[in-house]
Design goal:
Length: 224
């Protein structure tokens, strides 16, 4: 067991990697937004995003491509002595990385998790997209039975923004977050920019490590 935590080299390497993953994600979302005839269903949008992620990885890092794994189960955690319930859960995307500077091989596997959800008007009375963004998205990074990105200090969510004005969407997302006792999602300094990927973020307190936890949000405007 590595009681002292990751080394400075390990932390710096992971910081560089997560920065790379986020750049690929943002570029991929811009590619997605430029496409026509996008489907409305989340599963089809995720599939389109996967191809954009591969294209973005090759464009930004041709010498060392970083392919994400779609719909891959949460990985085993070294602090769990038996198979945990969380291992049956499947984030939408994960980047896997082995840290050569981590002295404990059981802790050398790192994952950067991305969860995707639709945003906008409800398609039916019993399926409220903006509330689902919290209940079936953000909450999965907080609830122990899901424990997305367990042991890691950050992750990302994608919002497929399909309708409504941005401030209206954000207001409804934060109303649902408050019901769960989750800190509100805040716009980054760039604000609402037409044709750009909208970046938001907040810090979450969790009952398992790592906490505080930074969840970044990338909303792609695919309104018709």
């Amino acid at each position: 067991m590595n009681e002292g935590g990751p080394s400075l080299l390990s932390r710096n390497l992971w910081t560089k990697r997560t920065t790379r993953f986020l750049a690929i994600l943002e570029h991929a979302l811009q590619l997605l937004a430029s496409q026509t005839g996008l489907e409305s269903a989340e599963v089809e949008l995720n599939r389109r995003l996967y191809w954009c992620l591969l294209e973005a990885s090759r464009s930004l890092h041709p010498a060392e491509e970083c392919a994400p794994s779609p719909e891959c189960n949460n990985q085993p955690d070294p602090d769990d002595t038996v198979r945990a319930r969380r291992e049956a859960k499947r984030p939408d995307f994960q980047w896997m990385f082995l840290d050569r500077y981590e002295s404990d091989p059981h802790r050398s596997s790192r994952q950067f998790v991305v969860e995707c959800k639709r945003l906008g008007m409800p398609p039916r009375a019993d399926w409220i997209l903006n509330a689902n963004y919290v209940e079936h998205g953000i909450w999965r990074f907080v609830a122990p039975e899901w424990s997305y990105a367990k042991r890691f200090a950050s992750a990302a969510m994608v919002g497929y923004w399909q309708s409504m004005e941005g401030n209206e969407v954000l207001q409804e997302v934060n109303a649902a977050a408050k019901k769960r006792g989750i800190t509100v999602v805040e716009l980054r300094s760039e604000g609402w920019q037409a044709g750009k990927v909208i970046k938001l973020e907040h810090n979450l307190e969790r009952s398992f490590p790592a906490s505080l936890f930074l969840l970044r949000h990338y909303w792609v405007d695919i309104r018709t």
